[in-house]
Amino acid sequence: MPVALVVTVSSRLPALLAPAGWRAVTGNRSVIALPGAAAAADALRAADVPVQDVADAAAAAAHGEDVVCLVAHEEAALFPEVPVVAGAPEPPGARLLDVVGVMDRLRSPGGCPWDAEQTHASLRGYLLEEAHEAYDAIVDDDLVAMREELGDVLLQVVFHARVAAEAGPSRRFDVDAVAGDLVDKLVRRHPHVFGNAGPRDVAQVEAGWEEIKQAEKQRRSPTEGVSRSQPAAAWGAALVRRAARAGLSTPEAAELQATSPEELGERLLTVVTAAEQRGWDVEDALREAVRRYAGELDVEAAARPSR
To answer: Could you point out which of 188, 196, 287, 298 has its C-alpha 20 to 30 Å from the C-alpha of 280?
Structure first.
């Protein structure tokens, strides 16, 4: 068969070739390319490597000499008897490039008019909705739903980053900036992995994370950086945890007679029922209490000497 060697290339990373792939395309054989490898063929021609485009596998097989055939990963199955070289092994996460590419197409001229008109403000409700749906899938241990809902959360991240990339200079950032900030933060806050802090147990890791975070943020009050839009119970729990770590006051704990989280949940539900019967909104009532506590924490933190 005229096709002596198949080299798989990446449509996502067309200019990337591993050493084995580079040796194959710069050897003694002529190089041809199927349509799925068109971008890689263009990149090679730009580097003065001759590549001839062919329409399909039949045209490749009909070639008059032994050749190296560049193909997309999914096209390699068209040559079951031919040795295959992984010319551009894709790293984990390569399909994230497709997500960014699809969003670029949707927001560009000729894309989707609905996607094109969205703003940070119009999208913010979807971010909460998708996060709640992902949470539900995790609670239900529904792996199929979890995979889908995590994808929807990822969409919101990429969507907001794309909107920001189109903003004015003072408000502009892109998805690479988001990813870069995340990587930098993870490296800074894991000195026991990426630095020379030495081995740590879980408690030491958590304490170190908080110390590094405090040094980075220079926050005076435990209320700073805690989302006020989360459910009141979660908001209150976050403030209590942070206040305790900071040595600030926490509300007096009730005498808890429940012996399990399940029993506690049942008792809390009876409180919700009683409040509903009186026409009280239990979420609003708790939110107001947490809001007052947050104000007290701010005052207490401001009165402390700087550390």
So the answer is: 298
Burial environment of residue 149 by CB neighbours within 10 A (0 to 12, 13 to 18, 19 or more):
buried
Residue 148 tokens read as: 């889908």
pTM: 0.71
Question: From residue 171, how far is each of 108, 117, 168, 177, 197 by CA, in Å?
Answer: 19, 17, 6, 12, 36
Amino acid at 252: E
How remote is the C-alpha of 10 from its chain's centroid? 22
285-300: per-residue pLDDT in tens? 999 999 999 999 999 9
3-state SS record for the chain: CCEEEEEEECCCCCCCCCHHHHHHHCCCCEEEECHHHHHHHHHHHHCCCCCEECCCHHHHHCCCCCEEEEEEHHHHHHCCCCCEEECCCCCCCCCHHHHHHHHHHHHCCCCCHHHHCCCHHHHHHHHHHHHHHHHHHHHCCCHHHHHHHHHHHHHHHHHHHHHHHCCCHHHCCCHHHHHHHHHHHHHHCCHHHHCCCCCCCHHHHHHHHHHHHHHHHCCCCCCCCCCCCCCHHHHHHHHHHHHHHHCCCCCCCCCCCCCCHHHHHHHHHHHHHHHHHCCCCHHHHHHHHHHHHHHHHHHHHHHCCCC
Residue with tokens 């996460």: 93
Closest CA relative to residue 236, chosen from 218, 223, 254: 223
Of 91 and 96, more confident: 96
Residue count of the chain: 307
4-17 pLDDT, tens digit each: 999 999 988 888 88
Identity of the residue numbered 294 = A
Q: Which two tokens stand for residue 62?
A: 């009909």
